[in-house]
User: What shape does this take?
Amino acid sequence: MSEALLRVEGLSVAFRGGAIQAVDGVDLALHAGETLAVVGESGSGKSVTALATLRLFAREDDVRTAGRILFQGEDLLGLPEAELRKRRGRDIGIIFQDPGASLNPVFNIGRQITEVLRRHKHLPRAEAEAEALRLLREVGISDPEGRLRSYPHQLSGGMRQRVMIAIALACGPRVLIADEPTTALDVTIQAQILGLLKALQAAHGMALLFITHDLELVGDIADRIAVMYAGQVVESGPAAEVLADPRHPYTRALLDCRPHRGADGEVHFAAIPGTPPRGVFPGGCRFAARCARRAAGCEQPQPLLTEGARAVRCCRA
Ligand code: ADP
Ligand code: MG
Assistant: This one.
């Protein structure tokens, strides 16, 4: 396979001087133009993996990282802050679950888009404004002239996410990281934003790292899937194969949790019993305590992730 555009190698991230282990030896490969979905319950380390890519941590997080994050062969984790700042938004765009929190409430939309264009592309004001209009049109915002002068609170959640996507696209990144981009939106809007991301990806040939806790969304958008549990990848492979034939009991359990209509005609929601370990992990298989297929010998030693296109971390797979 061709060299990955973005390759995460043995990434580990700990907070509070090592007291909280969030990500533990994660490998991911994102190839040009493809969509990789990273899936897992809340707390599995998906967002921390995304944040590590652009080192978007706060000073007080007291973060320690190990491993490499290679973008076009260059290790982003090793770059000085000033150098990384240039890459953020230019090479790799990122959008988050809560588009309100990422927008500045005191500046209008036009100012927030043109600022990015002026900073990274050094466009003069008039050109930046014309480009901002074009971007708003591209992300499907009606009355873009009027919207340039709107403030974030005047827009709906779906509109705000479209604006965030416009900002993320402004510099033509090769990679877009979308961390639960539709989780805060209602179902109809969710589908629209997902459709927009797919269309933009095709139009721009971007690679998309799509993060979600919702396996339901993945079949529509992903080429490949990496399932995360307790800071590790536990299964990965082509999306259609993983969804049709999940090999890790955790992936199976996630699939079984999707809402389904029972024989009685009612919609049922299942849940995986128990909660995932967070921050401090047991030795051996981290899923064993919740696993429906657990057997003698499952606890020790920790199963390794197998090699190859379909990788599984389970001693019984
Ligand atoms: P996900 O996105 O999969 O829901 P996260 O990546 O946000 O999960 O979190 C992984 C783990 O790291 C969780 O246990 C979370 O509580 C912890 N964590 C995340 N950010 C911080 C932080 N800034 N300081 C301390 N712990 C954190
Ligand atoms: Mg998250």
User: Anything to note?
Assistant: Residues 187-204 form the longest helix (18 residues). The chain has eleven helices and 13 strands. Residues 46-47, 179-180 surround magnesium ion (ligand 2) (CB under 6 Å).
